[in-house]
Amino acid sequence: MFVKVNRDEIIEGLQKSAGIIPAKTGAAFLRSIWLEAGESSLKIMSTDSSLEFCGDYPARVDTAGRAGVQGRAFCDLVRKLPAGEFVIKTDAESKNVLIEQGSRKYKLPANEPEWFQPFAPFPDADGGETVFWSGDFLQEIIEKIGFCISEEDSMEAIACLYLKPEQDAAGKHVEVCGLNGHQFAMFTFVNDDIHALLPREGALIQRKYLSELKKWLGDDEIELALGEKRLFLRTADKRETFSLPLSFYQYPNYQGFLSKLKDPTASRLTVNRTELMDSLERILIFNTDSNRCTYFLFSPGEVVLYSQGQDVGTAQEPMPATFQGDLQRIAFPTRNLIEILSHYASEQVTFTLTGAEAPCGVSGDKDQNYNVIIMPMMIQEETYYAEENA
Fold it and tell me: Which of 51, 228, 234, 290 is 20 to 30 Å from 304 at the Cα level?
């Protein structure tokens, strides 16, 4: 192999490729980046045995061939080279990969050729259906849902992002859900092409793959395809392909607790989102390991936020609010509530409170297609704030 490439034309793809391989652990072939020189391009490929990345970049190829190198070392070296063209070649015995730029010369051991395993091809070669979608919109969905997905792989379906095609009287739409046992998030959008692409039972993507998927995604349009076992994504110019495995668990039926929010007897609290977040940030200072919550005490024109910690004292903040219902108080984990509110754009948010220890829905007028449900914390009688302590 003998190829000349421009550093600036491959560095972004090379960093994406290096990002998915294990840093130190795992088999040596999983820590490899594979370089394949073709007629007029250089392919950069890597995998962690689940995720697969392949980028195709312009190059001047004198001798075609394929070689594997230690991925992180090769990426770090290229990243620190000055801008401009450099040479990648293998020695006569294909035992080493040589990198040259002017008088600079470097040598990295080449991996055994039999270590290379062909990557799963993008399905369009077999006449598979593909659709185009906005990369930044998919990033937004992951951001809105990802924090509600369980981090425990052993939790199976609830450790996954769930995309489900639905149809009702209003028409076709796609529901994207995340659940971790005490929080649930759902974002709904209309896209006939994505609706048609998804299988009837929906598709599951494990949380552990979402961070690398977000890094790969950009603002530009992407092309999507579904294989039998994998989700494929490709840049519109077909230069880069990223694929990941799908999971095949049974996702819990979430319609039951969504229906509770429609209860006409539920209490409702409407409050300024920014003011509430600011108050919660201050009250968080008074949370401890044994008391991680903020108590809400309701009255028609205001809500009082309260917390106490044995070693840090107490905090109490009243703030204007609109409240309707019979509920007197409720407690939420402070840090979780701050994170939930940070994903909304609405100036005012409404809490639909179905009970002191029952699901609570959060919604906003500028976030019509986005809903989060949080479970309150059990109130211990010896710690909650009462009016006589004012």
Answer: 290
d(CA 159, CA 140): 19
Asked if the domains at 123-245 and 256-389 fall in one CATH topology, the answer is yes
Which runs of consecutive H residues, i.e. helices, occur in the chain?
7-19, 71-80, 135-146, 192-197, 210-216, 255-260, 273-284, 334-342
Superfamily in which the 2-115 domain is placed by CATH: DNA Polymerase III, subunit A, domain 2 (3.10.150.10)
| Rounded Cα gap, residues 167 and 255, in angstroms | 14
Average pLDDT of the chain to the nearest whole number: 92
Q: Phi/psi at 322 (nearest 5 deg)?
A: -110, 125
**Model confidence at 74: pLDDT above 80:** yes
Alpha helices in 20-134 (DSSP H): 71-80
| CATH code given to domain 123-245 | 3.10.150.10
> Residue ranges per domain, the chain?
2-115, 123-245, 256-389
Query: In angstroms, rounded to a whole number, what is the distance separating the alpha carbons of residues 25 and 7?
Result: 28
What pLDDT shows up at residue 39?
A: 87
**DSSP assignment letter at 56:** E
Q: What CATH number should be reported for the domain whose range is 256-389?
A: 3.10.150.10
Q: Report in angstroms the alpha-carbon separations of 314 from 87, 109, 176.
A: 65, 62, 39
For residues 363-373, average pLDDT: 95
The structure tokens 């609290």 sit at: 269
CA distance 302 to 162: 37
- Torsional class of 156: left (φ above 0), alpha (ψ -120 to 50), beta (otherwise): left
Q: How far apart are CA 208 and CA 320, in angstroms?
A: 40
What is the reported pLDDT for 19? Answer: 92
**pLDDT, greater one: 348 or 380:** 348
pLDDT, position 332: 96
pLDDT tens-digit series, residues 60-72: 999 999 999 999 9
Query: How many whole angstroms separate alpha carbon 164 and alpha carbon 162?
Result: 6
